[in-house]
Amino acid sequence: MKLRLATPGPTEVPQRLLLAGAREIVHHRSAEMEALIDEINAGLPPLFGTGSPVYTIASSGTGAMEAAVANCFSPGEEVLIVSNGYFGERFQAISRAYGLTAHVVESPWGTSISPREVADAHARHPGIRGVLVVYSETSTGALNDVRAIGEIFRDTDAIVVVDAISGLLVHPVEMDAWGLDVVLGASHKGFMLPPGLAFIALSDKAWTAVERSAGPNYYWSFQRLRQFYPMSSSSPAVSLLLGLHESLKMLGEEGLDAFRERHAGLGRAAERALVALGFSTFIQPPHRRSNVITAALAPEGIDTGTLLKTLSVKYGVTVTGGQAHLKGKLLRIGHVGAADALDLCAVFGALEMALLDCGHRFTPGTGTGEIVRTVHEGEN
Amino acid sequence: MKLRLATPGPTEVPQRLLLAGAREIVHHRSAEMEALIDEINAGLPPLFGTGSPVYTIASSGTGAMEAAVANCFSPGEEVLIVSNGYFGERFQAISRAYGLTAHVVESPWGTSISPREVADAHARHPGIRGVLVVYSETSTGALNDVRAIGEIFRDTDAIVVVDAISGLLVHPVEMDAWGLDVVLGASHKGFMLPPGLAFIALSDKAWTAVERSAGPNYYWSFQRLRQFYPMSSSSPAVSLLLGLHESLKMLGEEGLDAFRERHAGLGRAAERALVALGFSTFIQPPHRRSNVITAALAPEGIDTGTLLKTLSVKYGVTVTGGQAHLKGKLLRIGHVGAADALDLCAVFGALEMALLDCGHRFTPGTGTGEIVRTVHEGEN
């Protein structure tokens, strides 16, 4: 059985990138690799909207989140955590592990954070050293307005730390213009690579926080990253860097605007198809939805746990369900990176088959037809 | 843009086989390669329904067709060619090139050959040394009854040469039981490999013909194949043999019955989907259709040349059209090898988009819905 990935990440890696990463290991101090790392270091900052260096480390996205906490704050310091899903909660857990005092602005899963509430929380806690926020919350598909949040803290001493791991590339990130101080990314989302690389961009304001921080950190040390730059502070993940070099070329060939339009089109098509099949959109206006995944609540009587299992075991398609209280209710279809409309046709073909298996009644072709219709309308 | 192949061959090669073929080149006289070739030589005959050796050569399928002509007959000898499509015509061209006198039993494109007409032709030309027939005629999607043709010649001196290049694996081939004398295969159809290998199986009766033949031949020489067996008479295509070894494992894991049922299901789904979209089935009963491809005539006003170009340029999907007088009218969708129902969902998604581009009117999801319905019905 063929396996198909339609998750928020890892995503399907195009053969071109798999082959680039399958090359023999080149030593990272070789002239060839140094030239290639220079190109990577030149290619990343524009994607973050920054003139500052972007550091690449061997780690998952969670490592980058921990690195930000471990480098920018000290035990006992106050931070504000903006949380409307699973990854907002992860920022809380990491902050607890590092002994920070976290004030949480919580918003229900399925909503976007209100910048006004963030400003109010800041007013209540003027001593915070920073705010930690997730851009695209992949547990729900909500997009947070990090631009407005950046604006709130621009003229304060508090830094803005953004987990842009899934949102980067798919949605605009203008780090310098929006006043964001730490922006985190990872390889297995829009970059279309296997997991294993994380990206960290730091503003001058962030460096002030780093220099003041008591840590503790070593592998995560931003100061070591800066000291060894442009090379890596530890052995770099060579295969993934070879892939990243090629990924930047692919992104350049497609162009960021086209990349974003493609993802917006996929999100629109997936949402319409889910609605046509009787699902209800999880993110409702005025809340903003991410184009990384499309999340929807299953029709009455359909358990998404059973649906996911059928999709995976019988049809080889991996999509994700709801976490925590949304388990069994939510369905999340990922379409980030190399996914195209015809992949969605295959994924929705399997979804329709699995829904029929689960006893749901509808005319076959209802979902796939919406994909075809949306793509065709989008072009004409 | 992602590229998707839905042609009668080359077909999409599963990553498992690509990786097997991407290994370093092993010398063909090494102990490892000799053991692997022994396993290949043991694995192929059951797929041909024979107890005789199956020879593997570095060549396309056409090379195997030429080898059969060059080894089994002599200039000036009479043969009967059964022709109902492009590959039947190829047998005629090769026979002309080798100076044979060919009597042709022709049947219109889109029909299966009538075994009775073959018997009648034999009665008119009792001096023929052999009959050449295509099993699955991929230019039209017709399947010829090679079993019945084998029966006609069983107790005669004439040998039966079968081009089973696309039909092998997808449809049963019982060479010994059906009295077939030369059966030809190739790597890039049911075997799911890249093009480059051809297979030749020979009965004892075929060897009598070979020993009598005046050639000319050298690379194609069956006597050299026998002399060097189990090794190759020339440098073997090592990468493809590495892939073939893995392909035989994959076929063994799926099982031939399941492999055939899968292809029958894909043929049924593709035909229903095409009919639902306004196409008309090209092969009508009592003529038999091959499960290698599904061929259908386009609805009034749709030029399949334009359609193919749109599919390829705009959606990255390669399907094939009609050859000769069917150019612009016929559409042929391949689903041989590793193709599955979700691949068909993607291909039909693209076909629907391209049909909308060409101005054809229908409810989007009409074709993909038939795929979903047929697969689901087939399972329940």
Automatic annotation (TrEMBL), chains A, B:
<dbReference type="Pfam" id="PF00266">
    <property type="entry name" value="Aminotran_5"/>
</dbReference>
<comment type="similarity">
    <text>Belongs to the class-V pyridoxal-phosphate-dependent aminotransferase family.</text>
</comment>
<dbReference type="InterPro" id="IPR015422">
    <property type="entry name" value="PyrdxlP-dep_Trfase_small"/>
</dbReference>
<dbReference type="GO" id="GO:0004760">
    <property type="term" value="F:L-serine-pyruvate transaminase activity"/>
</dbReference>
<feature type="domain" description="Aminotransferase class V">
    <location>
        <begin position="25"/>
        <end position="324"/>
    </location>
</feature>
<dbReference type="InterPro" id="IPR015424">
    <property type="entry name" value="PyrdxlP-dep_Trfase"/>
</dbReference>
<feature type="binding site">
    <location>
        <position position="332"/>
    </location>
    <ligand>
        <name>substrate</name>
    </ligand>
</feature>
<dbReference type="GO" id="GO:0008453">
    <property type="term" value="F:alanine-glyoxylate transaminase activity"/>
</dbReference>
<dbReference type="InterPro" id="IPR000192">
    <property type="entry name" value="Aminotrans_V_dom"/>
</dbReference>
<dbReference type="InterPro" id="IPR015421">
    <property type="entry name" value="PyrdxlP-dep_Trfase_major"/>
</dbReference>
<dbReference type="GO" id="GO:0019265">
    <property type="term" value="P:glycine biosynthetic process, by transamination of glyoxylate"/>
</dbReference>
<dbReference type="InterPro" id="IPR020578">
    <property type="entry name" value="Aminotrans_V_PyrdxlP_BS"/>
</dbReference>
<keyword id="KW-0663">Pyridoxal phosphate</keyword>
<feature type="modified residue" description="N6-(pyridoxal phosphate)lysine">
    <location>
        <position position="189"/>
    </location>
</feature>
<protein>
    <submittedName>
        <fullName>Aspartate aminotransferase-like enzyme</fullName>
    </submittedName>
</protein>
<dbReference type="InterPro" id="IPR024169">
    <property type="entry name" value="SP_NH2Trfase/AEP_transaminase"/>
</dbReference>
